[in-house]
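Work package 3, deliverable 3.1, input record:
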Amino acid sequence: MRLVSRAGKPVEVGGAEGLEGGRFERLLLPHLSAGFTLAMYLTGNTADAEDAVQEAILRAVRYFPTLRDDDARGWFLTIVRRVCFTAYRTDRPQGSSMISIDAVGPQLVDNREQPDLAAERLQVQQRVRAAVDQLPPLLREAIVLRELQSCSYAEVAAVTEVPIGTVMSRLSRARARLAVLLHDVVDFGEVV
Amino acid sequence: MSERPPLGEAMREALPVYEASPSLQAWAREEARKLDFESLPPREAPIRSMRSRVWRFSQWPIAAGLLVAAAAGWGAGLLRPGARITSSTNATTSELVDAHVRSLLPGHLLDIESSDRHTVKPWFAGKTDIAPVVVDLADKGFPLLGGRLDYVDGHTAAALAYGRRGHTINLFVWRTVPGEPGAGSFAVRGYSLLHWSSNGLSSWAVSDAALSELEAFRDAYVH
C-alpha cells in the first residue's frame, strides 16, 4: 500500500479530546491525502482538486455527526467524489482535462540498474500512465480506488455509490481495456 | 521483459499518489475546530471580527453619525403616517441600506476576515448555495476585507466587504428571483446603490461612497 501518510500526527485541539473537533481531526484528517489523490485523478488538475477537497471538508464538517467511527476513509472519499462529479463535471465523455500524469510521475528507476533496463522500466511506467489516462472516468476511478488506493470491492462500491456487481463489472472492463494496451508488459492473469 | 508485474504492482509503480498541501491540512484543522463551537449560539461563537482593523478610534464619530442617520431614517419611515414604503424596489433598496448600516456596527461586518479569495469563497460554499465571484481588487483600489452571511429583503445573501479610501462597500449577492428590478443605480437616505445581474445572481453594491466610486467598483469586480 502506497498511500501517502500525513507528515505530522494529528494535533489535538487544546487537549480537548472527545470534543467533535478532536474526533474530526483523529478520524478524517489522516485521509486528507487519500481524498486529494482521488480528486487529482477525477478533476485532473491541482487547483480543482484542492477546491474539491476544501468543499468536501466543509461538507464533512457539516455532516460529521452522521459519521460512524469505523468508516471515515470511505465516508470522506464518497464526499470528495460527489463534489468532483457534481461541481467539476468530471463525468464528461472524454478526459479533456485529464491529468498530465507524465508531468508529475515519480521517478522510480534505480540508478544502479543497467541503462537499457532503466529506460525500459521508465517506458513501461509511461505506457501504464497513458493507458489509465485513456480510461473513461467511471472505469478509471474504479481501478484507481482498487489498485492504487487498495480499497476492497465493498469500499469501492460504497465510495462510488453503486452495487458491488457494478464495481466488479467496471473493474473487469477497465482491466480488459488496459490489457489491450499493456498485455506485453503487464501480467493480467486470465483476464485477457 | 520476461517478468511482467501484475496490474496492481505496475499501477502502483507508475501512478503518483499525492499529498494534500500543508496549507490545505492546516485549513482543514481550522475547520475541524469550528465543530466544537457549533452548539453555541452563533453570535457567541468566537468568530474573528473586523473590529481591530476597521474600528479605529478615529472612526467612531463616523459610526455615531451613521447611527444617528439610520435612526432618523427609520424614525421618519415608521412614525410618519402614510409614509410607508409601497414599491418593492424601494423596499429592497431600503433594506439593503439597513443591512449596510447594520454591518458597520462593531463586529458585524465580517464573519470571515480575509483578503484571500481562496479562503473566502469556500467559506460561503459550506453555508449557502450561492457561489459569488470572490476577487481581491486591492490592485484596483478596492481591497477585499472578507465576507459574511446576511439576510436582506427575504433573501439569504452572501455579503462581501470591500474597502475604498476609508469607506466600506458591501456587495450583496443572492439568487435572482422573478420580478426583481433591472440593473440601475439608486440613492437612498444618502447612500448609493448599484444593481446588476449575471449568471442568475443578483448583485447589489451599497456604500456611502459616491455613485461614481460604486461604478468603478462594479467595473473592476465584473472584469
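The longest strand of chain B covers residues 155-164.
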